[in-house]
Design a protein that fits this description.
This protein has four helices and no strands. The protein starts with a helix and ends with a helix. By secondary structure, it is mainly alpha-helical. The chain has one domain.
Length: about 100
C-alpha cells in the first residue's frame, strides 16, 4: 500500500521545464524512471536503504576502532614502568621475608 502511494506521488510531480536535466531532479527519480512495477521500486528503495545503513555501520565501526586505539594508547601511557632491577630487588625482598 505504501509503495503505491510513492508511485502516485512521483506521478503527481511537476513536469520539468525544457531546460531541466536529470541533475536538477532527485537522484532516485532517475534510477526509478524506467521501473514500472511498484514492487520493483519498493525493492530498489529497500536495497538503497540497506546499503546506506551498512555504510553508516562501517563508518561507525571505523570510528569506534579509532576511539579504542586512543583509549588503549592513553591507558598504556598511564602504566607505571619500574626498572627491572627494582622489580627483582622487591621480589627477592618478598621471598626473603617469606622464607
Amino acid at each position: 500500500m505504501a509503495s503505491s502511494s510513492r508511485v502516485q506521488k512521483r506521478a503527481q510531480s511537476p513536469v520539468p521545464s525544457p531546460t531541466s536535466s536529470w541533475a536538477s531532479l532527485p537522484s532516485d527519480l532517475e534510477e526509478t524512471f524506467q521501473m514500472s512495477d511498484p514492487e520493483e521500486i519498493a525493492e530498489y528503495e529497500r536495497t538503497k536503504r540497506l546499503s546506506r545503513i551498512a555504510s553508516l555501520r562501517e563508518t561507525r565501526l571505523r570510528e569506534r576502532e579509532e576511539e579504542d586505539r586512543q583509549v588503549e594508547s592513553k591507558s598504556q601511557s598511564a602504566v607505571i614502568s619500574w626498572p627491572e632491577e627494582e622489580i627483582v630487588s622487591l621480589t627477592s625482598d618478598i621471598l626473603d621475608y617469606q622464607g
